[in-house]
Design brief:
alpha/beta, 434 Repressor (Amino-terminal Domain), 4 domains, 4-stranded parallel β-sheet, 17% strand, elongated, DNA-binding
Chain lengths: 385, 385
DNA sequence: AACCATTACGCAAACGTTTAAGATAGATAG
DNA sequence: CTATCTATCTTAAACGTTTGCGTAATGGTT
């Protein structure tokens, strides 16, 4: 046995082996009644670890300035307890040493990250990204940061994203649900935490959570009335999944318009799809076989409306002569496609801005009142109708 | 003076006032030689503060389980030191109490957030968002999270985003610079930190940082050769700002193609723009006045190419009869516009994926080798040429 | 001289984790 | 029976901040 000294009495006598723990020999000094191992070299100490990240910490500044950490922290935060001299000295020193505060540590003690999280279904179209722009602009003005997670229209990804963000990463959550989110238990579970949640665009009906959405019902009613005014009687309606609130609302608006103008509803003219390319094509092809023939297609998805125009053109169907096509949303592609798409502008950017404003109001004033706002849009008539 | 007791000797005698600090009366006990204030009620204690956030912590679990915090932590991490009984007990308890680890605290001690940050110029087109999709998909497979910041093509926002993210929020940074980023000092300053950086698509030339980009030079050469093959002699080239690496590379490719095929360059056919709507329109209008007339427009921005098609159509110019138009990038809008746009597919998604792969390789294996990869794209010929 | 105010600091606890290493009981070997 | 081993705990330091409160020095009033 190598001469092992007891760390207490410094004597090598009366030392016994005392088992192996995690592959390391342990010893026992009978004199001192003390168990120990020979300490490993890589034990963390403030010296070695400071070099670990390469970043300067408050401690580094304090040491070179010859003051306490508290003083440095206060100087950098303009606390009145610190003399003007010390303050400016510390500040210039921090600058020199390129100090940048560790936000994790700050957030941990402040219990706030000054960051709001956004969960959004996808960024493949300008539709959602323009909401994002609105959010970011409002946030930037208030000094908040934005982090974005794409759920990719996948319910489980949405859940994973929520959990990741809600575990103290953000001060508030802005969420727009996936196409397939029909249960909101995952959200309800998070509601007992102190962090406010605001839903936007695609919202849940019954949860007591603030929500900002489009005027789906009135909008759809306006669109259908526009088609009826153009003389359409056989209006096919392309809808999203039944669970989706926007599907329900827009259908309702459509039905109201029909009813008001005495147009009878043909259930065959309603199609629920998941907005995928083939499902849309199939739905349209099915409509085209109907008799009496349809004279309009109203797609509650702008993207699908554009796709439908392409499909009809391939079939040599004249737009708007034979069939009028209208979308809902107002995206950039609607202006590019030929004929240009008539659509309902849901003012996505404003929805984002307003959702963010409501969030900031809750964060800053601590006001936890549940608000439910509808952003009014407007019809944009173009060539396709 | 109210009867104030000394916290040490519990006697109200011999207590003197000793100044006011921050609006609070201070006292001094002559017996104990001890200064004190009457402590404020809202002093933080583990009891009150635990309730503060409403979240269960390891301490809460430890207390109700009657074990130490260390044991709980180890049980949840399947550390072998913990007995099977204890482990399953703790786990079920944690489940019951709806425990979710505080990621800030975890990251602080682990020095890793398991998150990679992406800074991207904008999300207004599918161009960048498809890179994002690639990034997210690769990340998801490795259990990393993604946070996204939009710089909005603004240099200062880019700097602010970098600083925010690099202060310990992320393990690695993926960045695509703004249109106007011509100095990279802000990036160089971050390079001494341990956080790896990978540039993608728009990269800097001289910084020793890993980069993934398109085959800009070869791509542009291919496009121009395609136009030459179609008989074009007067090819106008719409470029981005001169500082941009993609501008330089694509121009170089264009020139090579001209040279190889003996087409002489007319400097009037080159235009540098910031991709804004009016600048592009102005450039095109200027070209249209030239003589001999131009017979093709090659825009290195896909979005501008689509815009140019719209502009030429408005002027009743036949595409591709009078002027052939080609873009670079391959976005969704290129398929929608009429005539459909010939373009060079830069495989944006693959660029994102590869950038992310390189990053993960650096994070996981610790390999800090600087890589510089070009993703090969390919020409997509459509109606506009 | 006795008391009180003010200024400008330092100490240490707290935020919620992770993780060396110390401790202890019971089992096993010689 | 003694020395050692194993399994399973607990203790405490560390991550980098913020902040309540203690305190020394100095100066001003009675």
């Amino acid at each position: 046995m190598p001469r092992v000294k007891c760390p207490k009495c410094q004597q090598p006598e009366r030392i016994l082996k005392s088992g192996i723990v995690r592959n390391k020999q342990r010893y026992y000094c009978k004199d001192c009644d003390y168990h120990f191992v020979i300490p490993s070299a890589r034990k963390r100490t403030r010296e070695t670890s400071a070099r670990d990240t390469g970043a300067t910490s408050l401690r580094d500044i304090a040491r070179t300035a010859g003051v306490s950490i508290a003083t440095v922290s206060r100087a950098l935060h303009d606390h009145p307890d610190i003399s003007a001299q010390t303050r400016s000295f510390i500040k210039s020193l921090a600058d020199e040493m390129n100090y940048q505060p560790n936000m994790l540590a700050q957030s941990l003690v402040n219990r706030s990250t000054h960051t709001i999280g956004v969960i959004i279904p996808n960024l493949n179209t300008t539709f959602f990204s323009s909401m994002l722009s609105g959010i970011q602009q409002v946030c930037a003005r208030s000094g908040y940061r934005v982090v974005i997670c794409q759920s990719d229209e996948d319910h489980n990804t949405e859940i994973a994203n929520i959990q990741a963000l809600m575990n103290n990463m953000i001060d508030g959550l802005l969420i727009c649900h996936t196409l397939h989110t029909d249960t909101f238990e995952h959200l309800r579970m998070q509601m007992n935490k102190r962090i406010p949640i605001v839903q936007f665009y695609r919202v849940s009906e019954d949860l007591p959570i603030s929500k900002i959405h489009a005027d789906d019902e009135a909008g759809a009613e306006t669109v259908t009335e526009h088609l009826i005014a153009k003389g359409c009687k056989r209006i096919a309606l392309l809808l999203g999944p039944k669970n989706l609130s926007i599907t329900q609302k827009r259908l309702k608006g459509h039905l109201q318009a029909l009813k008001r103008h005495g147009v009878t509803l043909d259930r065959k003219l309603l199609a629920h799809v998941d907005f995928s390319h083939e499902k849309v094509t199939r739905a349209v092809d099915h409509w085209l076989k109907l008799s009496p023939a349809i004279d309009a297609i109203f797609s509650i998805s702008e993207k699908c409306a554009v796709q439908i125009i392409g499909h009809l053109k391939k079939k040599k169907i004249r737009i708007p002569r034979q069939i009028r096509v209208v979308g809902f949303g107002n995206e950039y592609t609607g202006e590019i496609v030929e004929p240009q798409l008539t659509t309902y502008d849901v003012r996505t950017r404003e929805i984002g801005e307003e959702a963010c404003r409501v969030m900031l109001e809750q964060l800053i004033s601590g006001n936890r009142e549940v608000v439910d706002k509808r952003i009014a849009g407007k019809l944009i008539v173009r060539q396709s109708s």
